[in-house]
Design a protein that fits this description.
single chain, 433 residues, alpha/beta, Rossmann fold, Tyrosyl-Transfer RNA Synthetase, 4 domains, 6-stranded mixed sheet, globular, EC 6.1.1.1, tyrosine-tRNA ligase activity, cytoplasm, protein biosynthesis, aminoacyl-trna synthetase
Length: 433
């Protein structure tokens, strides 16, 4: 029975959310609770890691229903790279769900804070971006986010609007509202301090300024990844300092990249960009492991948890997991490239591998640091015993990367994850870091 247990994980999670909402309702027996609020809570908590504080957010929802005033829901992203990937859309999807409930979503581009560099999860000081880099990256951010959010119902803001006018005096006054002891409660700062790794003073300013964004926007709820929890809670505290009702905090899990190990990141080469060509997006989604597929379903798919649980049970009962992966890849490609794009990408995918079926499971290998020559990649991944054998296989037309035949023996591969094939039967999912 153990192999069926994971098939019902999503079902039990849905049941947990039901009883969580029920517990809230029963905690206030004197106040009749609109069942629509319970449903709003269920939508908000789907796939989330944590919602702080559930009772406060329920009260905000009730007030919004009673007054007709939508909640102000904030998501901030620093334009550290020009493209948004599927990992970013985990929180964007949640924003869209809350937007569809009638609330105001604020897509905040951190053009000011990007000049500091977010130290979250870092083991060293993050190099700040230049104003020119920030402007260039910000150009595409909102356009790409609009592929998920409804642009007609989205408030787009830049935090330079209030951070630039703050000035030195205002910055000092802001810094006086938070203690160093509280700042050192942050895990990454504590680790670096204990390890003797330098912490620049300006890094303390980042969570303060992110929190000040919430003050400036009068946010009711702020979203972020689990690595942003400290910063989001700073926003709550600063709002209290400025006499505002504190925002609630909703954190979403960090999505693993195609390697299934590191969080999705362009610098790691394990990302899937939302503006990538349909064929590329489809192929990368098909390359993820069967286990990781269910994580992607929960965090990226718009299917109901019940539908996903039923599909997982079918796979546990013998259905080919490739069928489920095709459904996932098709849904994602359709979302970003239009209806029918997923079906066309599937046709192209099948055509590339017509000479030999792709196994549903294949060895996953981390070959080393990129860039790496194709001969070494084949040797390090165990697909060829030697460089000379790898060269012969290429000369004979027997080597493919993501379905495309390799002809250049001096090919250098950048960081990323690739489905590599030698002959008709040797496959490996190879990651270069």
């Amino acid at each position: 029975m153990a192999r069926y247990a994971s098939a019902y994980l999503l079902f039990f999670r849905a049941v947990f959310h039901f009883f969580l909402v029920k517990a809230y309702i029963m905690s206030s027996p004197s106040d009749p609770v609109d069942p629509r609020i319970a449903e709003d809570l269920r939508v908000a908590q789907r796939g989330c890691d944590e919602l702080l504080v559930v009772s406060e957010f329920a009260a905000k929802l009730a007030r919004s229903r009673a007054t007709g005033m939508p909640l102000r829901i904030k998501l901030g992203l620093d334009p550290t790279a020009p493209d948004i990937h599927l990992g970013h859309t985990v929180v964007l999807n949640k924003m869209r769900q809350l937007q569809d409930l009638g609330h105001t979503v604020i897509f905040l581009i951190g053009d000011f804070t990007a000049q500091i560099g977010d130290p979250s999860g870092r083991n060293a000081t993050r190099p700040p971006l230049t104003p020119e880099q920030i402007r260039e990256n910000a150009k595409t951010y909102y356009a790409q986010a609009s592929l998920v959010l409804d642009p007609d119902r989205t408030e787009i803001r830049y935090n330079s609007e209030w951070c630039d006018p703050l000035g030195t005096r205002g910055l000092i006054q802001l810094a006086s509202r938070y203690t160093v002891a509280r700042m050192m409660e942050r895990d990454d700062f504590t680790r670096r301090f204990k390890g003797g790794v330098p912490i620049s003073v300006h890094e303390f300013l980042y969570p303060l300024l992110q929190g000040y964004d919430s003050v400036a926007l009068k946010a009711d709820l702020e979203l972020g990844g689990t690595d942003q929890k400290f910063n989001l809670l700073v926003g709550r505290e600063l709002q209290k300092e400025y006499g505002q009702e504190p925002q609630c905090v909703l954190t979403m899990p960090l999505l693993e990249g195609t390697d299934g190990v590191e969080k999705m990141s362009k610098s790691k080469g394990n990302y899937i960009g939302i503006t990538e060509a349909p064929d590329s997006m489809f192929g990368k989604l098909m390359s993820i492991s069967d286990t990781l597929m269910w994580r992607y379903f929960e965090l990226l798919s718009f299917r109901s948890l019940e539908d996903i649980g039923a599909l997982q049970a079918e796979v546990a009962g013998g259905r080919n997991p490739r069928d489920a992966k095709v459904l996932l890849a098709g849904e994602i490609v359709d979302r970003f490239h239009g209806a029918g794009a997923g079906a066309r990408a599937l046709e192209q995918f099948n055509a590339r591998f017509r000479d030999g079926a792709i196994p549903d499971d294949m060895p996953a290998v981390t070959a080393g640091a990129a860039p790496m020559g194709i001969l070494k990649v084949l040797r390090e991944s165990g697909l060829a015993a030697s460089a000379s054998e790898a060269q012969r296989n290429i000369e004979q037309g027997g080597v493919r990367i993501d379905g495309d035949r390799v002809e250049d023996k001096s090919l250098l591969l950048p960081a990323g994850t690739y489905v590599m094939q030698v002959g008709k039967r040797k496959f490996a999912r190879v990651t270069l870091t």
